Please model this.
Amino acid sequence: MMRRCLLLVVALMLHAAAWAHKPSDSYLTLRGAAGAEDISVRWDIALRDLDYVLELDRDGNGALTWGEVRQRADDITRYATTHLELAAGGKTCNWASGTPMMLDKHSDGTYAVLALTAKCEGLAQGLKAKYSLLFDVDPSHRGLVQWAAPGSTTSQALVFGTESAEQSLALQPQGAWQTLRQYVTEGIWHIWIGFDHILFLVSLLLPAVLVRRAQMWEPGPSLRGALVEVLKVVTAFTLAHSITLSLAALGVVSLPSRIVESIIAFSVIVAALNNLRGTIERRRWVMAFVFGLIHGFGFASVLADLGLPQDALVLALVGFNVGVELGQMAIVVAFVPIAFALRRTAFYRRGVLVAGSILIALIATWWFIQRAFDIQGGPF
Model:
């Protein structure tokens, strides 16, 4: 039984290692022109995703070149436009190419940038979008859309996923409730797919049901004591990342993404290794607060990718932060009862705490190397 559980832990950790960078997203900016029915579209799609579905790396050397990408520009455009359908007044819009394809750097790699125009009739009767890019190979992929209606000075942020592949694009600004709900959902989703944030939090929570005596971990005497320790850690982490998330989202403070992501990986290493030595036993909340400040910048970068509606900036910020906390609490509620029930077993103290912490530290070390030295498998 213990061997099976350990194998499960290893499998989960290795799966998490595949997500050293953030999950697959593409970025769409759709803008209508006042008095016209054309919609200009800028679409940023990761080259790593395009290479996976279109095999852009013709020589198979693992290094995409601009020449290889440029030769497949028509194929890339065709693939993209067959996976995004715009319809106005019940009629499908027609695609027209704009300027030649370009490349742009994002925090997680190089993206192909498509400039397109959608020719729509009856735009005043309403506009709908159906998005399906990469869903057949990566159900977690999302399309992050900024939509500016004709004559509007603000934009609406939308997220397309497998469960929200078809949506209406409002010709009028969305209401406060829709904005709040959308960003709460995104906050929950992000913490659940943010494996580095999850592993940092789990590393801090693993010893919460134990006590350190004579340089050994022993079962904690009561659930109340464990809950107090969990409350300290979660509160400190929440307070810290809420501060920097807000400051970064409002443009008050900014740090380079590469530095932020590298320190986040480093924080996971420190938290995991601390479980082996017990150096910081009763003040793990201090570690949660200090590194939580950096994790807040990581959350802010995701929020920036989603796009913040300037007319509802505070509401979107509050909604995203609430979503992060709800997602975080769901993890805590699921983890603590199981950990407390298993705290007296050798499986938990050796298999989960010790072996699990070693695995987490190894995974986070690889993340740190990738992020600090910008290792992505090729020039793009």
Remarks:
- The mean pLDDT is 87.
